[in-house]
Specification:
The protein has about 90 residues and is an all-beta fold. It is built from no helices and six strands. β2 and β3 form a beta hairpin. The radius of gyration is 15 Å and the shape is elongated. It starts with a strand and ends in a 24-residue tail after the last strand. The C terminus is likely disordered.
């Protein structure tokens, strides 16, 4: 999540759920995010790559309107990152 005009901070790892039931944190390299993606409120999707895995993983980023310091951005107070899970 981010606010209009501020580049999102994407996670360095994603959780991988493997076919044997194991869940591990794997490093992800995200594609570049164009400033136009977070220039207005809404959502956009970012793709990333995990070494040794195809297809790409994806994260949905919510962009909220800026609020003043006395009224926090209500849409950014409790969401979570979402990314595809995969089996290997």
């Amino acid at each position: 999540m981010t606010v209009v005009g501020v580049a999102p901070s994407l996670p360095a790892t994603v959780k991988a759920k493997w076919s044997n039931g194991d869940v591990t944190d794997e490093k992800v390299t995200w594609d570049s995010v164009q400033a136009s993606s977070y220039a207005k409120a809404g959502t956009f999707t970012v793709s990333g790559k995990v070494t040794g895995y195809q297809p790409s993983v994806k994260a949905s980023v919510r962009v909220c309107e800026k609020q003043n310091m006395y009224r926090p951005c209500t849409c950014c107070t409790g969401g979570t990152w979402t990314a595809n899970h995969w089996t290997g």
